[in-house]
Amino acid sequence: MKGNSVMKPNRIAILNTNRIISVLPKHLDILRRTAPDCEFLLAEKAEDLPVLAADADALILWPSVGPDLISYIRNTPGLRWLHLFTSGVDRLINSEAGKIPGYRITSTKGIHGYPISDHVLALMYAFLRQLHAAAHYQQKRSWSSDILSGNCREIAGLTVGIIGVGNIGLELARKCKLLDMTVLGAKRQPITSQWLDKCYPISQLPDLLAASDFVVLCLPLTEESRHLIGREELRVMKNSAILINIARGGVVDQEALIEALEQGIIAGAGLDVTDPEPLPESNPLWGMPNVIITPHISAQSPQYMDRAIHVIAENLRRFLADEPLLDEVPRHGLESR
């Protein structure tokens, strides 16, 4: 009888594909306390989702999009919400999965400032104290003080230009300001902050580029930001300047960057992201002595999931309560199937 029927609990699928930053029992406990009436379905591979979570209402996942995941999303009509463990959504949005209608997308923002700002500072200090060059000479078993000592610099008094002053950019600005740097920011809508000496609109980006010893890219990849840094922008920078990119590889015209590095238009680059990823072995960036490459690890931290799970839990609460979701990505007409 209808009066005795029980409403099916919401089924929340979790695609736990990251072996380093994994969803542990303590994290599941937080989700279960947030939503005690939900059923949580854990899968380690996308190909397992059709069996483990055939009728899921929501999916929490990393943004590695392959045929199995696309097929699952397309063939799970009850799926109404996808939440990414990461801040960036471009890999999902720009894939075939991003074209499938009927579900909402949110991401995990506000937790990356600590590790990414640490990573940027590590790159800055590596260039200032010649650590990348010292590592090269160490491999040759060469005591190179006469070569390196003349190029060592201090960070105090230098100027850093941060393009994109959201959560990550402002945390970097805070740390740089405490190191006695001049801190410039650039944002579509300029802001005021105790950690910024000045914030420019993007239309005045050349002013920031010309004044900065370090230019740090902290903005998302959009149609507007693709190749934001190209030949013209690189030529505005100081010959002694270092470009650091922890955003997305596509924010920089990589061919123009290679030319600028080869011709001495800028002094160096610290790249945690490239275009494409992984960077092909034949790419000349690998062999450049004035380039430091890290494999998209700037957000990595033992505390990552401990922070992320609270953002996910809050959005789960909002999803179940039919409240506005945090950091929802506009679907532009793809809200319903």
Report on this model:
The chain has 337 residues and is an alpha/beta fold. It folds into 2 domains: 2-111 and 302-329, Rossmann fold, CATH 3.40.50.720; 113-293, 3-Layer(aba) Sandwich (Rossmann fold). 32% of the residues lie in helices and 16% in strands. The chain has 12 helices and 13 strands. The protein has helices at residues 25-34, 49-52, 67-74, 90-93, 113-128, 131-139, 145-148, 167-178, 205-211, 231-236, 254-262, 304-321, and strands at residues 11-15, 39-43, 58-61, 81-84, 104-106, 159-163, 182-187, 198-201, 214-217, 242-245, 268-271, 291-293, 328-329. It is elongated and about 70 Å long. Mean pLDDT is 95; it is low at 1-6.
Short summary of the structure?
It is built from twelve helices and 13 strands. The protein has 337 residues and is an alpha/beta fold. It has two domains: 2-111 and 302-329, Rossmann fold (3-Layer(aba) Sandwich); 113-293, NAD(P)-binding Rossmann-like Domain (Rossmann fold, 3-Layer(aba) Sandwich).
Task: Tell me the layout of helices and strands.
Layout: E1 11-15, H1 25-34, E2 39-43, H2 49-52, E3 58-61, H3 67-74, E4 81-84, H4 90-93, E5 104-106, H5 113-128, H6 131-139, H7 145-148, E6 159-163, H8 167-178, E7 182-187, E8 198-201, H9 205-211, E9 214-217, H10 231-236, E10 242-245, H11 254-262, E11 268-271, E12 291-293, H12 304-321, E13 328-329
Parallel strand pairs: 1-2, 1-3, 3-4, 4-5, 6-7, 6-9, 7-8, 9-10, 10-11, 11-12
Antiparallel strand pairs: 5-13
